[in-house]
Amino acid sequence: MNVRDRVVEAAERVARTKPHDRITYADIAAEAGVHWTAVRRHLGDRPTMREWLRGLQSARDTPHADTRTRILEAGAAVFAEQGYRSASLDKVAERAGLTKGAVYWHFASKQDLFLAILDHHLSAQTRLLPRQLDRVLRSDEPESALADLLADRFRLPGEDDGRPMLFLEFVLSGREPEVRERLRKMHGLMLDGAAACISELQRAGRIRSDLDPQAVSLMVDALLKGLVVEWLIDPGRAGDRELFRTMARVLWHGLTP
pLDDT tens, 196-217? Predict the structure, then answer.
């Protein structure tokens, strides 16, 4: 986590315990573990900082999630509905029910927010996978459990909330060099995490040892991404439950010893 994020998150924590007009640079610096000048550098002068804190505290009465999460969720919806080029931080602020200042303190630009959403989605997939695979292998009906896993991974982008369009925006935005490089790195980390899980299962004798873990990881990921494209073309075909049962049957008999 960079210094800016530490300062912002520390400020949000302090804002839960003290009125905005009584919070000092020193309060936030102590919470973040940084020098008070770092707080001033990232949050501005005292009136600006306290006005932002006031906005956070007034917004906190209605939402159920913390400010950063609300912005990420609102940003994902705006990018999915309007596309990267038409989206703006002002529109995200309006969607999240926050002041523009609250959004701009968390994210310096539209690209910054977009990359954070990308990171959030790929990290979630990487974090969930080991537990999901373990649940499949421990199941009394592993083939059926694998079908559930595939359906769940396919649903992760969101079948009915516009997020397949967000996936498409991730791919299309790769035309921008910085986004393309971040996408490549983040996606690579996700694939490497999946390959590491597969290697562990091979060592435990749960998956055939003559398969390349990286190739298996990429193959399954490509299969699911292809399904998202198929869903965008014809949702009725790609979302059919029998499709996941068939995929699970083919994969299970191809992967297991």
Answer: 888 988 888 888 999 999 999 9
Domain at 110-255, CATH homologous superfamily: Tetracycline Repressor, domain 2 (1.10.357.10)
Rounded Cα gap, residues 119 and 200, in angstroms: 25
Cα 131 to Cα 142: distance, rounded to the nearest angstrom: 14
Half-sphere exposure of 11 (CA within 13 A, CB side): 32
For the record, the structure tokens of 196 come out as 């590491």
Give the model confidence (pLDDT) of 218-235 as tens digits.
998 888 888 878 877 887
Q: How many CB atoms lie within 10 A of CB 26?
A: 11
d(CA 221, CA 224): 5
Q: Is the alpha carbon torsion for 197, 203, 205, 211 positive or negative?
A: positive
- Structure confidence at residue 39 as a pLDDT band (50, 70, 90): confident
pLDDT band (50, 70, 90) for residue 63: very low
Closest by CA to 232, choosing from 143, 147, 139, 168, is 168
Burial readout 225-238 (b: 16 or more C-beta within 10 A, e: otherwise):
eebbeebeeeeeeb
Closest by Cα among 2, 1, 19, 11 to 39: 11
d(CA 32, CA 14): 10
**CA–CA separation, 11 vs 247, rounded Å?**
48
- All structural domains of the chain with their residue ranges: 1-62, 110-255
